[in-house]
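User: I'm putting together notes for a lab meeting next week and I want to include a structural view of one of the chains we've been expressing. I don't have a solved structure, so I'd like a prediction I can at least talk through. The sequence is below, exactly as it appears in our construct file.
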Amino acid sequence: MLMMLRRILVCFVLLLLASTLLGQSRGGRGRPGTGNPEELFVPWKFLPKGTELVKGPLVVYWLPATLAETEHSPLRTSQVLLDDSARCVALEIVAPDDAVTIAKLGATGKLPMALITNSDGRVVREVDNTRPKTIEQMVSDELSARDNAVLRELSEAKRMNSVELYKKIWDNRCLYPLVGREAQRALKDLGVVVKEPPSTLAPDPNLKVTNPTTTRH
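Assistant: Thanks for the context. Below is the predicted structure for the 217-residue chain, given as structure tokens.
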């Protein structure tokens, strides 16, 4: 049962990827570009020097030894990380001269490296290099561990008819969209209605609506 739910979850995430790619074409902090407007690239963002760490359920920090590493790295076009970004996985690049942020992450003297922080800002995984396959595997391992944990929570919520557990799963629905929807349905059955907030995305300025023409006979 758990394996089937995980497979369905992966398929659902891939469907959500289209909306993520649409968001990449809109504003935001600086990103390393590919030079090819038609090439899909991972939504890495450069973290401003000395700023607060990013808050999110899962944040991946790429700490290169030099900024030149980010210019042609396969990490920019990694399909694995592109898929992961559809699950609210934040992807941040820390400049090698940003000593304040590097110290906050406990990475002083360890560059190049990559790491993952959780919603509390605590480092939960790290690797001592920035090879694409290594970072992809690190993120995949963390997502897999979280998938297993949320499926156990879902089973426990069903066993106990626990509104509290269902709400916890719902609150983390961006990481587990399919399981989140199941929690939403279960909460409704228990008399608790939860809904997605209205979208804050601006309409696409290139989208044109044309009125259908009426053909006269």
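A couple of points you could mention at the meeting. Residues 40-140 form a domain with the Glutaredoxin fold (CATH 3.40.30.10). Residues 10-29 have pLDDT under 50 and may be disordered.

User: Perfect, that's what I needed.
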